[in-house]
Amino acid sequence: MANLSQVELQNLRHLISAKDTSYEKLNTYASQAVDPQIKQIFTKSAQDALNTKQKLMTFLNN
Predict the structure, then answer these.
(1) CA 26, 23, 61 angle in degrees (round to 5)?
(2) Of 35, 34, 54, 31, the residue nearest 43 (C-alpha)
(3) Percentage of the chain with pLDDT > 70?
């Protein structure tokens, strides 16, 4: 792991958790959307949140 302080590690975990929550909510919204354009927006936003979460997790694996 990179030399992260306890505060940085705590903040990183908080950000990862927030992105995970966003991903779950946006997927739920996408599954409930009727309008195809709205569904696509929610789906893309969910994927973006997941990608960001995965990038943030790389800091934990280094």
Answers:
(1) 170
(2) 31
(3) 95
Question: What is this structure's pTM?
Answer: 0.86
Whether pLDDT at 35 is above 70: yes
Calpha distance 28→32 (Å, rounded): 6
The residue among 2 and 41 whose pLDDT is bigger is: 41
Helix, strand, coil % in the chain, rounded to nearest 5: 85, 0, 15
Which residue bears the tokens 């995965």? 54
Q: Number of helices (H) and strands (E) in the chain: give both, helices first.
A: 2, 0
- CA dihedral 31→15→56→62, nearest 10 degrees, is -140
Q: CA 53, CA 57: separation in Å to the nearest integer?
A: 6
- The predicted model gives 12-41 an average pLDDT of 97
